[in-house]
Structure to design on (111 residues):
């Protein structure tokens, strides 16, 4: 397994832990993978997903609470739909979609 594949695997492992009805930020996932400056790489890992339905990619958004996906296979409208189906309120403003991080951000328990 290459270093990139190992990073992606770690990202998927973390994202699988985000509970239904909660979101995490790209930066938050990067920090949990012990690579705090790799928020963009977290996005690349999620974009690389094909049919891995066990990775709830829709639960990862940017640090402003905005859905910032740019992927033709998974448009913003799909992410909005999936989040709303989980009970997450997604608001549209400024031509973008936002989630209230204060209410919906996942706070994993520390070990």
């Amino acid at each position: 397994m290459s270093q990139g594949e190992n990073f992606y695997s770690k990202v998927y492992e973390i994202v699988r832990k985000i509970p239904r009805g909660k979101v995490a930020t790209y930066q938050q996932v990067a920090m949990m993978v012990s690579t705090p400056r790799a928020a963009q790489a977290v996005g690349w890992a999620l974009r690389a997903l094909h049919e891995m339905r066990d990775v709830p990619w829709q639960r990862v958004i940017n640090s402003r609470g905005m859905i910032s996906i740019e992927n033709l296979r998974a448009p913003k409208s799909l992410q909005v739909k999936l989040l709303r189906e989980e009970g997450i309120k997604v608001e549209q403003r400024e031509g973008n979609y936002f989630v209230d991080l204060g209410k919906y951000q996942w706070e994993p328990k520390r070990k």
About this structure: The CA atoms of residues 58 and 83 lie 7 Å apart. The longest strand covers residues 90-93. The chain has one domain: 3-104.
